[in-house]
Amino acid sequence: MSTEEIIEDVVDVRPSPAVSAARSGSRPRVPVRIRTRLAGRAPAPPSPGTALHNVCVATAVLLALVAIGSLIHEPVLIPPLAASAAIIHGAPGLPLAQPRSVIAGHLLCAVVGYGVVAASGSSPWAAAMAAGIGLAVMTVARTPHSPACATAVVIVLNTPRPSTFVPLLVGSAALLVLVGWAASCARPSAPRYPAYWW
């Protein structure tokens, strides 16, 4: 090995990427370690076909909730259910997306919401308390589903009739789960949903 080869091994005499890019007239490439840090630990996005399938199915089930609401003249699509659909179709393997968490989480937080309204009335302060208590109840019941906390907030702020709201809420949550399961079965390359039922 010549002296020049030894020096090149010890001291990197190659020009930096910025210098190389300037010489060639192209933009410098972002180093791999910086690209890795920018991407974080987020999973790779799904294939375009899978993403399109998920978006179409989630949109279709939300439109179905709107149609049901129009037929019965009741608001069926509420923001927490849209968030539930996003979790079921966007991250079907998470514990938050499993049927036990989706259905029982919404039901438990509905009970909490009505309990808080009965105890302290309807106010933003009470709504915040309902969300926190709902989270605690779901944690103890092992039914984590973050959109359900928003269900408690909706109930405290809007005070819908329980006899109408609760059956529609549970039915809508069950419909989201069933559509997620059917969509998973219809597309063999999709991740299996649910990972467990109960």
Compile the SSE list and pairings.
Blueprint (H helix, E strand, L loop, with lengths): L2 H8 L6 H8 L7 H8 L8 H25 L6 H12 L8 H22 L3 H18 L4 H13 L3 H25 L12
Helix pairs in contact: 4-5, 4-9, 5-8, 5-9, 6-7, 6-8, 6-9, 7-8
Structural overview:
This protein has 198 residues and is mainly alpha-helical. The chain folds into two domains: 3-39, no CATH class; 50-186. The protein is 70% helix and 0% strand. It has nine helices and no strands. The protein has helices at 3-10, 17-24, 32-39, 48-72, 79-90, 99-120, 124-141, 146-158, 162-186. Helix 4 runs antiparallel to helix 5 (79-90), helix 5 runs parallel beside helix 9 and helix 6 packs antiparallel against helix 9. The longest helix is centred in the N-terminal third of the chain and has 25 residues, at 48-72. The radius of gyration is 25 Å and the shape is globular. It starts with a helix and ends in a 12-residue tail after the last helix. 31% of the residues are buried. The model is unreliable at 6-13 (pLDDT under 50).
Task: State the main characteristics.
0% strand; 70% helix; globular; 9 helices; 198 residues; mainly alpha
Q: Helix segment count?
A: 9
Order of helices and strands: HHHHHHHHH
Strand composition percent:
under 5%
Largest sheet: none
Low-confidence stretches: 6-13
Shape: globular
| Terminus-to-terminus distance | 67 Å
The gyration radius over C-alpha positions equals 25 Å
Number of self-contained structural domains:
2
Percent helix: over 70%
* Arithmetic mean of pLDDT: 85
The secondary structure category is mainly alpha
Task: Count all strands and give the number.
Answer: 0
